[in-house]
Amino acid sequence: RPLHAKAEQHLMCEEHEDERINIYCLRCEAPTCSLCKVFGAHKDCEVAPLPAVYQRQKSELSDGIAMLVAGNDRIQAIITQMEEICHTIEENGRRQKQHLGLRFDSLYSILEERKKELLQSIAREQEAKVQRVRGLIRQYGDHLEASSKLVESAIQAMEEPQMAVYLQ
After folding, report:
1. Ranges for the B box-type domain (predicted)?
2. Confidence of residue 3 (pLDDT cuts 50, 70, 90)
């Protein structure tokens, strides 16, 4: 980064004010001037020409940007795919709920029909049994009436004092 707000061709060394920054210290990773390399803080450092380091770092940054953009594109594609998956899951869930509702409605209808049939069957059987028992009640009632008349007749016979009439 430039040390001053001036354009790069006018960037001057802070230590040697009359010297332009024209080299790059590879060990310190800082731009500097030739005097700093020869006499100053960077005399024991390895340096490279500023334009070469600038081009290399700019190329690396460009490659990094391209990789980030490509990565962002892949992430966006994955997000889009996941959103589609969410939509598909929601749609499948809605269809399954609807299908389940229809199946339960169908089963409920079948059960209601079966309930109706069974209730009618019970009612028919109940009616048949009640009529059968009432027939038996009438039959036993008739039998009881006949038996009561027989008892009444037998009692009257018992009260007959004449032996010949009684035996007749």
Report:
1. 8-50
2. low
